[in-house]
Every structure is written in C-alpha cells, then in structure tokens.
Amino acid sequence: MEAKKSNKLVIILLIVTLTIVVAMAGYFGYFILYKNKQTKTSNNKVTLTEKTVQLDEFVVNLADEDVRYIKVKINLAFTDKKLETEIGEKTPQIRDIINTHLMTKKAEELNSNGMLKLKGELVSKINGLLENGKITNIYLNDIIIQ
Known about the structure:
This protein is an alpha+beta fold. It folds into 2 domains: 1-45; 51-145, Band 7 domain (Tetrahydropterin Synthase, Chain A), CATH 3.30.479.30. It is 56% helix and 18% strand. Strands 1, 2, 3 and 4 form a 4-stranded antiparallel sheet that branches. A hairpin with a 7-residue loop joins β2 (58-61) and β3 (69-78). The longest helix has 43 residues, at 2-44. The chain is rod-shaped and about 110 Å long.
C-alpha cells in the first residue's frame, strides 16, 4: 500500500515539475521571440527628422474684384539635409512662385479645403524648382485674409 502511495506521490511531483518546466520554457521562449521581433522591427525603421525653413511673411493682393489681401507666414518642411542649402540659395525664386500663385486666388477659395489645395499646389510648384530633393509639406501660419 505504501508503494502505491509512493508511486502516486512521484507521479504527482513529476506532473507538477513538468508543468513548471513547460510554463517556464513558454515564458522565456515568448519573451525571447517577442524581444527579437521588436529589435528587428526597430532596426528596420529609418527615422527621418523633419526640418523646416521659415520664409519671410507674405502680404499679397488677391484676385478679387474689390481690394482683398492675404497675410501669411510659410514654413517649408523637408527631410533631406542637402535641401536646406538649396532652399536658402533659391529663396527669391521660391518667394516668387508663392507670391505669383497667391495672386491668382480669390478670398472665397481660401477656406479650409482651399487651404489644403493651396498647400498641395505650392508643394508641387516648389518641388518643380528644386534639384537636390523635395519638400514634404508646407505649413501656413498666422493667416489673415481681409
């Protein structure tokens, strides 16, 4: 009878030990695989820091029949470092593109959707001028339309 009790005790201890070993293996395996997956993902990411160049303020007459104008500050955003020098060298041409384009707009066109469209148009026109990269966005700040 004691042998049966001893065998049951050994079997129970063996089951408990195996359960603990399997749980620990699963725990460590999960963290090793998960950590490797995170490391691979973070190594594959390329961090692009966005730089901006602020242009002087624009005050431009709009195309309305009555006298209307827009006053706006514009920042050009880009990720290529070489572009900063080129933007500095081509600031007069960039300002001309922006001035000329703003003069074609009417005040009613410059609502929220119109501003988004304007930003896209300006990005496209300015990128046509640039040779060493492309601007990624334009930020319009301190906008006044009268």
